[in-house]
Amino acid sequence: MHFTVIQRISGILLMLFSFTIIPPIIIDLIYQEHSANAFFTSYLTLLASGFILWLPVKNSKKELRLRDGFIVVVLFWFILSISGTLPLLLYEELDISITDAFFESVSGLTTTGATVLTNLDSLPHSILFYRQELQWLGGMGIIVLAVAVLPMLGIGGMQLYKAETPGPIKDNKLTPRITETAKALWYIYLTLTIMCILAYWFAGMSLFDAIAHSFSTVAIGGFSTHDASLGYFDEVAIKIVAIVFMFLGGVNFALHFVAFRNWNIKAYMRDTEFKVYFRVLLFVSIIAVAFLQLTGATDSYSDSLLLGVFHVVSIATTTGFATTEFHLWPTFLPVLLIFTSFIGGCAGSTGGGMKVIRVVLLLKQGMREMRRLIHPNAVILVKIGKKPVADSVIDAVWGFFAIYVAVFVIMMLLLMASGLDQITSFSAVAATLNNLGPGLGEVASNYAGVNDFSKWVLSFGMLLGRLEIFTLLVLLTPAFWRK
């Protein structure tokens, strides 16, 4: 274990993160709302802290190993979450506790979108922009951004990329060099963000709201600059723009890369995961629209269509935007939407959940076991498309699912022990572990009324979900620390 290298990288990344606090300072200078001091103090504090970490070990340039990569990723996400609380704590008018500030910071960086803040419409533009920026940075993963920069500083990046990139198959690269891979991902991410900004702007949002909401839409985050979320805007075009870019944000960015590079959408049509992702959204949308119409929950068919499709895409991709109180919808619809978040987006996307590819592999493996009962001696392969999947990948998926269920049960029991009811506990764990945001019961609108103990448990759950459980839990095993 090369602790000096880990310290050096952490210092560099912390200094890089400090520069992300400059845009909110500029926003404050534009709107003259006198919150710049909190951000400027935070910027200097983080920059100095990173420099102090880096200076004693600046010449340590040993090769970074895989285990070192896991430590850097986990350590920095914790450091990042703590650092993200500074502007919120230093802005005195916000009057926020350390627990709430940490919860909000983690929620932003993990693109969960669960908030403890209320009266968003009265907050300074700088604070609102900062929350959205946290989600945008967390969407693709600030570690992946750093991978594109660190090689210039003499640091290899493949280990970091393997630890950070979501999905069961970690070794795939889009380009031969990891630096080029990270850059390709960010070019696609930035392009989608700019397209989303322009679309929102043309649809009727102000430029500030268009930029802010594009950050949380492409990042599959769900934070808004208004208490009513996207329900604040009356234009139908804005909801349609959100549906399109939430859908795109939930797609594997490797597919976006191939499609952009070749200017051809056939890559999507050939991908098994994408086809399942689309079919799940379509099937659940049909159910939601039909039941909204049949139960008379909306005034017209067009309202049922828009509300149904919007909320299915929002919840299924784990974005968490809302235009109405969907938790009050009739019959089983609210629970159905929460369950779709367990599937989440595609591997390699900014979405949360277990990922579509894992669910596909779980179902295919289940079907294989049933066939083996009928034909015990048959050799039956699990295939994605026309390619067989290695048993090691299937074993990893089953291991992930087992750990996911165990973590879910433990977190839910802890929340119930703290005094929350069953519905609130279940949906809060689902909403945070899947990086969704809104839940049911007491957490349908926000998490302000949840007790502090539960907020810390849920904060840990958000980090587990963002790092896909194994990346974080592997550090807690004795085998990881053995030589």
3D structure, described in words:
- It is a single chain.
- Helix content is 64%, strand content 1%.
- Strands 1-2 form a two-stranded antiparallel sheet.
- The protein is mostly helical and 483 residues long.
- The mean pLDDT is 87.
- It has helices spanning 3-18, 22-31, 36-54, 66-83, 86-90, 98-109, 125-140, 142-149, 158-164, 178-203, 207-218, 236-249, 253-262, 266-270, 272-294, 301-316, 333-343, 356-374, 391-417, 422-433, 452-466, 470-473, 478-481, and strands at 383-384, 387-388.
- The radius of gyration is 22 Å and the shape is globular.
DSSP, total strands: 2
Compute the CA-based radius of gyration.
22 Å
Overall, the morphology is: globular
Low-confidence stretches: none
In spatial order, strands of the major sheet run: 1-2
Q: What is the first-to-last residue Cα distance? A: 8 Å
Element order, helices and strands? HHHHHHHHHHHHHHHHHHEEHHHHH
The main β sheet shows up as:
2 strands, antiparallel
The helicity comes to 55-70%
Structural class by helix and strand composition:
mainly alpha
Number of helices: 23
What are the salient characteristics of this protein?
single chain, 483 residues, mainly alpha, two-stranded antiparallel sheet, 23 helices, globular
Topology of this protein?
Elements: H1 3-18, H2 22-31, H3 36-54, H4 66-83, H5 86-90, H6 98-109, H7 125-140, H8 142-149, H9 158-164, H10 178-203, H11 207-218, H12 236-249, H13 253-262, H14 266-270, H15 272-294, H16 301-316, H17 333-343, H18 356-374, E1 383-384, E2 387-388, H19 391-417, H20 422-433, H21 452-466, H22 470-473, H23 478-481
Antiparallel strand pairs: 1-2
Helix pairs in contact: 1-3, 1-4, 2-3, 2-7, 4-6, 4-9, 6-7, 6-21, 7-8, 7-11, 8-10, 10-11, 10-12, 10-13, 12-16, 15-16, 15-17, 16-17, 19-20, 20-21
